[in-house]
Amino acid sequence: PIFYFGDTLYSVDESAGYVEVWVWRTGTDLSTSSSVTVRSQKTNPSSADAGTDYVGISRNLDFAPGVNMQTVRVTILDDLGQPLLEGIEKFELILRMPMNAALGEPSKAMMQFRERVYTGDENDGQIVAVVHRSGDVQYRSSVRCYTRQGSAQVMMDFEERPNTDISTITFLPGETEKPCVLELMDDVLYEEAEELRLVLGTAQSNSPFGAAVGEQNETLIRIRDDADRQLVVIEIPVIRQGDTSKASIVRVHTKDGSATSGEDYHPVSEGMGDPRAYLQADLETVM
After folding, report:
1. Strand pairing class (218-224; 117-121)
2. Which residues contact 120 (CB under 8 A, 6 or more apart)?
3. Of 171, 178, 204, 264, which is most buried, counting CB atoms within 10 Å of its CB?
4. Residues 6+ apart with CB under 8 A from 191
5. Contact indicator for 70, 61 with CB cutoff of 8 Å
6. What kind and span of H or E run contains 223?
7. What's the order of all strands across the beta sheet hosting 177-183?
């Protein structure tokens, strides 16, 4: 886990009396306790002074298992008794002495596809691609997930997801995965496998560190049409001539021509011993 401040700059009016600062703990494993110390210090050059403009602090924050955020309140002193016209004054808060964690800065909210390829059947009605978010996930983030046609065509094979706000996927604070759903168009005509791409773009976040699209910003979508492929069974007679008084055996097997085994027909390899037999072949044909 790492500790960091929720924002890089906090502004407050002197009369407010205090300012609250967020300290975040993020990482893949928050199942153990950890702690960090928050201290105040002067800026260089000096601006706001502890004891005059604010109450200096040195506070230890204990994070129990599962806790990812705590607030620190710093008291701001108002000079009501001796009002002075002052400009903007500043002081700093720093993190020190982390235990069971490290000090760091959150990365941008990074969004990308979980897989490089998604495959589905036309009659499934839809294909769901998973968009993964990493980095700073404590804020609301969004990204567009839109289509880019290839051999698969818009409104013939799938419903378009345009590169507009209507195709936006939104991550709420803490969420790391969201679906990008592609609706498919089913028909009764058989088609070979067709392809298109889903693309991510226009990443946004409420985080002060922003958002970006990761390296895997595209995923390939393959649409199969196995349901419209029909099976036809044909029988081919195998005839034995000449002396049929004794048993004979012949082995028959298939061999690819323009048709491909496993794609256009089921391969056959068997022995035959009857005087008259039939070779049965299963052919997949486009109807």
Report:
1. parallel
2. 126, 127, 184, 221, 222, 223, 224
3. 171
4. 122, 157, 225, 228
5. yes
6. strand 218-224
7. 177-183, 126-134, 109-113, 211-213
Residues 163, 165, 166, 171: what is their CA dihedral angle, to the nearest 10 degrees? Answer: 110
| Residue 231 pLDDT grade (very low, low, confident, very high; cuts 50, 70, 90) | low
pTM above 0.85, yes or no: no
- Strands (E) across 153-213 are located at 168-171, 177-183, 194-205, 211-213
Higher-confidence position of 244 and 230: 244
Lowest-pLDDT choice from 158-167, 186-195, 275-284: 275-284
- At which residue do the structure tokens 């002495």 appear? 97
CA angle 68, 96, 29 (to 5 degrees): 30
Residue with tokens 């022995």: 271
Residue type for 117, please?
Answer: V
Using left for φ > 0, alpha for ψ between -120 and 50, and beta otherwise, residue 36 falls in: beta
Confidence grade of residue 256 (pLDDT, cut at 50, 70, 90):
confident
E strand or H helix at 279:
strand 276-285
Q: What residues are paired with 72 via a beta bridge? A: 21
Task: Report whether pLDDT(202) > 60.
Answer: yes
Q: Cβ–Cβ contacts within 10 Å for residue 91, how many? A: 18
> Measured on CA atoms in the order 144, 150, 153, 158, is the torsion positive or negative?
negative
pLDDT tens per residue across span 67-111:
988 999 999 988 765 666 677 889 999 999 999 988 877 667 889
17: left (phi over 0), alpha (psi -120 to 50) or beta: left
